[in-house]
Design brief:
With 323 residues, the chain is an alpha/beta fold. It has 2 domains: 212 residues, Rossmann fold; 79 residues, Chorismate Mutase Domain, subunit A (Up-down Bundle). 52% of the residues lie in helices and 15% in strands. It contains 15 helices and 10 strands. The strands form 2 sheets. A 6-stranded mixed sheet has the order 3-2-1-4-6-5, sandwiched between helices. It has a 4-stranded antiparallel sheet with strand order 7-10-9-8. Helix 1 crosses helix 9, helix 3 crosses helix 9 and helix 7 crosses helix 10. It starts with a helix and ends with a strand.
Length: 323
C-alpha cells in the first residue's frame, strides 16, 4: 500500500497551486508503464482537460502502429482529445547524423511544440521518473557534461522553437520505477511493453541494465538515490547560476570583454553559453565555450575562434561578436 500512497501524493498541492487542473494541458503518452501511470494519476488529481499526445517513431513496424492505436483507445475510453503524430526517426537520425535516442527526443519535442502552437496550449506533462533522472545524469556525465548537463531533467523547464514556447512539467521525477510498477499492478492498469527497453544497443539501456547494477554490486548498496540527490543539488545550483547572468547580457548583440573579466570563471562560462545559444549557435559544447572564453584572457593574441556551421566568434575593440 505504501507504494500506491507514494505515487498518489506526488506534490499534489504544488501542482494544484501552480498549475490549476481547470486549465488545458497536453500529456505525452507512449503507452508504456510510466506515461499510463501519470495519465491516471493526473485524472485522480482532477486534471480532466487533458490532450493525449503520442508520436509514432516508426522504429518497430507493426508494434509501433499498435502503440499508437492503443493510446488512441485509452484516450477514447477516458473521453480525452488525442493527437497522434508520426516521424521516421531512423531516417531522421541518419540524415542528421544523430543517435536514434537523440533523434527521437528531437522529433518528440518538435511534435509537441507543433501541437502546442496549433492548439495554443503551452504546457505538457511528461512521465520521466527518478530512475530516468539518474540514468540521464550518468549518461551526460560520461559524455563530458558539466553540472548543467547532469541536471538536465527538471520538474519544470521551458523549451522554445521559433515563436512557440512549451513548458514541460515532470511530476514523477521523485518517483522510482519500482513504485510506478506497484501502482500499475495495484490499479490493474493496461500498458504496452517496449521490447527495445531490454536490448543493450542504446547507451541508456547499457547504463540501466549493466552499468548501474554493476556499480551497486561493487559498492554493495543502492547508489541511485545518491546520484538522484546530487542531480537535485546540481539542478538548484544551476538555477542560481542562471539567475546571476543578466538578461541584458544574454540578449546583447556583443559581449563586453571588460565586464566578462570581472566575473568568476563559472559565471563567464554561463554568460558565454547562454549568449551563444541566444545567437542560435548550434551544439554549444564545453570546448566551444572555452574557446570563446580564451578571447577574454588578458594579453591573448587570439582574436577569432571557430563555431559550428561556419560561424566565428571574433573580438574587436573590447567586444565579442558572432559572424
Amino acid at each position: 500500500m505504501k507504494s500506491q500512497q507514494t505515487i498518489r501524493l506526488i506534490e499534489p498541492s504544488q501542482l494544484l497551486r501552480d498549475f490549476s487542473p481547470t486549465r488545458r494541458y497536453f500529456i505525452g503518452v507512449s503507452g508504456g508503464r510510466d506515461s499510463i501511470a501519470l495519465l491516471n494519476l493526473l485524472i485522480d488529481l482532477g486534471y480532466k482537460n487533458l490532450v493525449v499526445c503520442h508520436l509514432n517513431h516508426q522504429l518497430r513496424g507493426a508494434s509501433s502502429r499498435g502503440d499508437a492505436r492503443f493510446v488512441e483507445r485509452i484516450a477514447r475510453n477516458l473521453k480525452l482529445d488525442c493527437e497522434i503524430g508520426s516521424t521516421d526517426v531512423g531516417a531522421l537520425a541518419k540524415q542528421s547524423k544523430l543517435s536514434i535516442e537523440t533523434a527521437a527526443r528531437f522529433a518528440r519535442l518538435t511534435f509537441f511544440i507543433e501541437v502546442a502552437r496549433r492548439r495554443r496550449c503551452p504546457r505538457i506533462f511528461l512521465a520521466h521518473n527518478a530512475d530516468d533522472l539518474v540514468e540521464t545524469a550518468l549518461l551526460n556525465l560520461f559524455r563530458g557534461a558539466g553540472p548543467g548537463g547532469m541536471a538536465a531533467m527538471r520538474k519544470i523547464s521551458t523549451h522554445r522553437i521559433g515563436k512557440t514556447q512549451l513548458t514541460i512539467l515532470r511530476p514523477l521525477l521523485g518517483v522510482w520505477r519500482s513504485e510506478i510498477n506497484s501502482y500499475i499492478s495495484q490499479r490493474h492498469l493496461e500498458f504496452r511493453e517496449d521490447a527495445t527497453n531490454a536490448v543493450l544497443h542504446s547507451s541508456r539501456n547499457k547504463i540501466r541494465h549493466r552499468i548501474l547494477p554493476d556499480i551497486e554490486k561493487q559498492f554493495g548498496r543502492d547508489v541511485r538515490k545518491t546520484i538522484w540527490r546530487a542531480a537535485q543539488i546540481w539542478s538548484e545550483e544551476e538555477a542560481l547560476l542562471d539567475s546571476l547572468v543578466s538578461l541584458e547580457t544574454i540578449l546583447a548583440a556583443n559581449l563586453a570583454v571588460a565586464a566578462l573579466r570581472k566575473m568568476p570563471v563559472a559565471l563567464q562560462r554561463r554568460a558565454i553559453l547562454r549568449w551563444l545559444r541566444a545567437r542560435k549557435v548550434a551544439n554549444v559544447s564545453f570546448d566551444i565555450v572555452e574557446n570563446v572564453r580564451s578571447l577574454v584572457e588578458p594579453g591573448t593574441k587570439i582574436a577569432k575562434v571557430n563555431l559550428p556551421r561556419d560561424q566565428h566568434a571574433r573580438r574587436r575593440a573590447g567586444k565579442i561578436f558572432v559572424e
